[in-house]
Amino acid sequence: MGIIGTVMGLVMVLGNLSDPSSLSESIASAFIATLYGVGSANLLWLPIASKLKMKDKAEVSAMEMVLDGILSIQAGENPSILKEKLKTHAGSMLPAEGKAEDGAAASGRAAVGQS
């Protein structure tokens, strides 16, 4: 929307160079198209892209955990070692604020004397 509209507006400017009164309208439409393009990119498309990247990262991490588990089972590793190995994968898949909340809750229970 932004780049295409800008280019089309500038093409209209070049097509109407002989008529100075229509130049301002063509330039204005090119700038408005640029403004809409920048606005939609920053308000709509970039947040969607960042969410998709986060989901992709979580999916890749889950698939790596599954693959690591399957390869460990196939190699005949001890189940307790496999459990610890998969716990490290599961801990890396949690969001950072989830880890902080778990730590704060545990320290709060320790301060009260609960376990």
From TrEMBL:
Residues 103-115 have a biased composition (Low complexity). GO terms for cellular component: plasma membrane. Keywords: Cell membrane, Membrane, Protein transport, Transmembrane, Transmembrane helix, Transport. Its main location: membrane. It is a multi-pass membrane protein. It comes from the Bacteria. Residues 1-65 form the MotA/TolQ/ExbB proton channel domain. It is found in: Cell membrane; Membrane. The chain crosses the membrane at residues 27-48. Residues 93-115 are annotated as: Disordered. Belongs to the exbB/tolQ family. This is MotA/TolQ/ExbB proton channel family protein. It comes from Candidatus Desulfosporosinus infrequens. The lineage of its organism: Bacteria, Bacillati, Bacillota, Clostridia, Eubacteriales.
